[in-house]
Amino acid sequence: xxxxxxxxxxHVGVDxxxxxxxxxxxxxxxxxxxxxxxxxxxxxxxxxxxxxxxxADLDRDLAAxxxxxxxxxxxxxxxxxxxxxxxxxxxxxxxxxxxVYDDIGNAVSARLWWLLRWVGHQGVAVLDGGLTxxxxxxxxxxxxxxxxxxxxxxxxxxxxxxxxxxxxxxGLSADNLLLMDARAAARFAGQSEPIDRxxxxxxxxxxxxxxxxxxxxKCFLPAxxxxxxxxxxxxxxxxxEVACMCGSGVTACHTLLALETAGLHGASLxxxxxxxWISGEQRPVAGE
Length: 288
What we know:
By secondary structure, the protein is of the alpha/beta class. It is built from eleven helices and ten strands. It has helices spanning about 15-20, 40-45, 60, 80-90, 110-120, 130-135, 165-175, 185-190, 225-235, 250-260, 275, and strands at about 10, 25-30, 55, 95-100, 125, 160-165, 180, 205, 240-245, 270.
């Protein structure tokens, strides 16, 4: 049985990663990214990263090209075959344990965590606290970039559930869907919108900012605390009636990771999220 089939962790600590830096089965991926400065993440990686880490660009590597009319949102899912080849080029194989990190509480790296689960690779976790925790613990850094030995993956695309705008509309109308929006409260309320062309939220959605998943040190809250946060909001609904969204399907993955940590399995990702929802003029928008 492959090692990945035994893996159940959603995050690992600094000390655990440190002991596996020379383990060829462990692959580290740096996901630092700034939506406002798209090249900043790569520059930061080149200036210093966890030894052995490869770099994943959110726009280029963790998403497909944006449609001309905006349908599908700002970060559509990548083609599974092409994405699988990219993962293999990073040294990821079926037995790999992949640890992903960024410097903003795993807001971006959770997307890669979810994508790996989506293509059927269970052996993945975020570095709890991200690079901030690594540096606080005086973990080693390097500027050395060494191409990894390619891996070999067995892909099972579609291993994580997704919904689109039509399913969201139908589910909310029939009251058999709970839609949780991971954006900050001000964006949800329509008071601020720094990225997308319209402010507000999907009518019927509830706001669960991804920052609520984290403690002050940017580490995930304990499973019991996450359970206490999400269970009252979900109520008696089966998890198959829960979907997560954000601006473009990135920080929604943070919510999905938190749900997994809390033992609440089975929620879907609304991939296109708010940027897809507002691509159609006919869809309603709510706000203050």
